[in-house]
Amino acid sequence: MSIMKLTPDFAASAQLTEADVNKAAAEGFRTIIDNRPDGEDAGQPTAADMAALAARHGMAFEHIPVVPGAIADADVAKMADALGRASGPVLGYCRTGMRAATLWALSEAGITDPETILRTAARAGYDLGPLRPRLAARAAKAAGGVGTTLKVFDVVVVGGGSAGIATASSLLRRRPSLSIAVVEPAATHDYQPGWTMVGAGVFAPEVTRHSMTAVMPDRVTWIKQAATGFAPDSDEVVLVDGSAVRYRVLVAAPGLKLDWNGIPGLSEALGKGGVTSNYRYDLAPYTRDLVRGLKRGRALFTQPAMPIKCAGAPQKAMYLSCDIWREAGALGQIDVEFHNPGAVLFGVAAYVPALMAYVERYGIDLRFGSKLVAVDGPAKVATFERRAADGTAERVERPFDMLHAVPPQVAPDFVTNSPLAGETGFIAVDQSTLRHVRYPNVYSLGDACSTPNAKTAAATRKQAPVVALNALATLDGREPVADYDGYGSCPLTVERGKVVLAEFGYGGTLLPSFPAWLLDGTKPTRAGWMLKSRMLPEVYWRCMLKGREWLASPHRIERRSQVRSA
Ligand code: FAD
């Protein structure tokens, strides 16, 4: 163990052993604070064991267990109390010391300025940079700035993407008198499902992007800046300019972060030398141009570990590319590989046979257990970590002529570092009501929330009316009235003209929108292509974003219980 002194009164450490406690006592520490839940690791001493050890030296002991990424303001209050009660130097510990340092830093905000706190922590080896907005929010609040003369809205929506705009519109359709603010820094709004079609030359890029003004509902207050933190204990959202906005109900929908830097070399390589991704508006046309230009060689398509938005999109890009090469007579000269760290082509078994037929037709080399870990753009070499069934891993280099890469996907930093985050970093909500598990006047939907559905715009289409109804119930002092079944949809574009329309909910339950005679989602169909290429964009722009809930009627919890009791 190494005790990392942050101040004369506080030090942080990784897990303490008996010898460490003896040493800490000898060094004059008077209190030990354990910030680990019991049972995190095999062989970890329990809080009771550690309390007994501390008692042997006459030291006080406090157990304030927190999990990484989910430190609530209530935890900080407990830490601040414990630090305040201490009769001498305090030693906080967890698995690495990071949680102890984080709790100390948050407790200090309001007493010491945030930059000094961050510098102090950095000197002791703890990079707490991502905590900056939360520290600033706490400091401002303590100074009486944030939270005193704030404008209060009935609903504040963070994020004007698919989920945020659909929810604001659904709320206003039901109750036009609501005061709603949408916090959204972007000037444009994207229909991301269209990027697959741009990459195949089916859509022009411009049809997938509208101005934010065009989609922002008329009656909302658009706050044109980014949120940098959530302060749910005081019902506030902190903004990038240091101000804040207060809500009666919060709808958090800031999407997810595409972690382009998570794969060394990828960011620098994108957009030239054959490296592309349909996951960026500006790069989807480059995919189209690359595919049209490739006549022979090796094309690699990669998928990162789950969760990702639209889990089918990495392979959609591949099938459509293969279809173009097939038509051009080039497919026979191109080796196509699909690298996926998972073990299956698609998570819901019912759709796999139809997809496998296309894998065989296009001669695709499926490489499961294979994760893209580095890209050397100039040398045109991709490095993969290949994991065998026995768990052993080896690195494999694959030269390429074209690489379609999809980055790892994580919660936005300001979400991960907020009290709203759950263990995965995403916003922790009940998967049925979409209400936050700790803050009853907070809802979240879309890519940013923790629910285990397929992260898709189709999911947000169904979630938005549920959140709208439940948010209204909360405003009226009632419990949530609607629930969400995990519906998500992935129109798998297996060729230009046919789609395998995967529609499913929690646990992989098939939830087809149409009877099989009209559209059998487990088979490639022209009807599916019509839906994807013609109807869904219209449904998106004209219905979903306007609060017209086509194919998205919310399921009411009361109705089901009435039926049951009837
Ligand atoms: P987004 O639509 O990403 O919106 C998030 C919004 O939050 C953005 O406007 C952003 O500017 C804003 N924001 C970010 N940070 C902040 C901040 N700090 N403060 C305030 N605002 C912030 N879905 C389907 O249903 N079918 C498909 O076929 C399909 N194909 C896809 C193909 C590709 C290539 C991609 C990339 C996605 C695809 N999706 C598909 C997924 C779908 O687009 C997303 O799941 C959906 O957009 C999620 O909506 P959202 O509102 O949660 O996030």
Walk me through what this model shows.
The protein is of the alpha/beta class and 566 residues long. 31% of the residues lie in helices and 23% in strands. It is globular. Residues 560-566 have low confidence and may be disordered. The site of flavin-adenine dinucleotide (FAD) has 37 residues, from helix 7, helix 8, helix 15 and strand 26.
Keywords:
alpha/beta, 31% helix, 29 strands, seven-stranded mixed sheet, globular, 566 residues
Can you describe this structure in just a few lines?
This protein has 566 residues and is α/β, with parallel strands linked by helices. Helix content is 31%, strand content 23%.
Number of strand elements: 29
Q: Which residues form runs of ≥5 with pLDDT under 50? A: 560-566
Overall structural class, as computed from helix and strand content, comes to: alpha/beta
Q: Bound compounds, please?
A: flavin-adenine dinucleotide
List the helices and strands and how they pair.
Blueprint (H helix, E strand, L loop, with lengths): L3 E4 L2 E4 L4 H9 L4 E4 L12 H10 L3 E4 L9 H13 L4 E4 L4 H11 L5 H10 L8 H11 L9 E7 L3 H13 L5 E4 L4 E3 L4 H5 L9 E3 H4 L5 E3 L3 E5 L4 E4 L4 E9 L4 E2 L7 H4 L5 E2 L7 H10 L3 E6 L10 H16 L5 E7 L11 H11 L2 E4 L1 E7 L4 E7 L5 E7 L2 E3 L4 E2 L2 H4 L25 E3 L12 H19 L6 E2 L4 E8 L2 E7 L19 E2 H18 L11 E2 H9 L1
The site of flavin-adenine dinucleotide (FAD) has 37 residues, from helix 7, helix 8, helix 15 and strand 26.
